[in-house]
What does this fold into?
Amino acid sequence: MKKIASVRSLRLALGAVASIAIGTPRVCAAACTAIASLPYTISAPGHYCLSGDLDHNSTTGSAIRINADDVDLDLQGHRIRGVPGTFGTSAYGIYEKKQNHVVIHDGSVRGFSQGVVLSSGGTAAGSAECTAERLIVEQSTYVGINVQGVRHIVRDNEIRDVGPQGNAHVGDGFGIYAVGTHLLILGNSIFNVTGTNYSPPTGVEIKGIALKGGSYALLEKNRIIGNRWYDAGSSSASQIAGVGISVEGDFFRPAIIDNRIVGYSLGVLFSTSQTSIPKCTGNLFQVLTNPPVSGNGSCT
It folds into this structure.
């Protein structure tokens, strides 16, 4: 395989890759290293693609582990699936740790603890300039997309049915979980994030997008709709709870613009220790709480 200088130059050379819709399986291009079975570890830069729908028949490890910089992973409209119906899974769908210039796109990741992880490994500069885009991430039992690092992009994804999905197990649910600096979270659709605890629903986190620490994130044109809290102590019907977007810890100066949040208890929660005023404007809320914004920030 011809060695490339960066993922960006590779994707320009491939041209039509970004324009093909999710859900349309394609034949691997000549320059693509085909992934035909799971688990699979990427250990060198290059362009990789799925050859078909694949299953990860384990509740541990990662279906695809990325251990190299400058990787373009094209799912080509295919699906990666974990062990169906397994709440206790600790497996990741696609996992990258401390790598730079990784792009993951165009396919489905289903049935893992966390669907896609772009991880800094606990260090501020551990992972930089990675992108997750045009993915369908569904039936994650904990987090849909987990992004940590610098200058990451999470764009145009569908994230569905995240969390315990019933009263049989206690647990949290996050559509997108983000820690880092200069993050772009744009145009994502997040449906049905759930959490389960014993009544009353305290101590359980149900959040469409959670900014857990960092600075200067832009959240724009995301659509976050529908969630449920389940009572683990009874068979009572679920109820609306949770937060559409939360800004927490020491997160500094996020911009929250033109998002749509429907069916949560609260639209935006600011519980950051920072005293700087975030930018929050043009958002639409259809939630239970009035006003729909709480904490040490406001939205106009």
Q: What stands out?
A: The chain has one domain: 7-295.
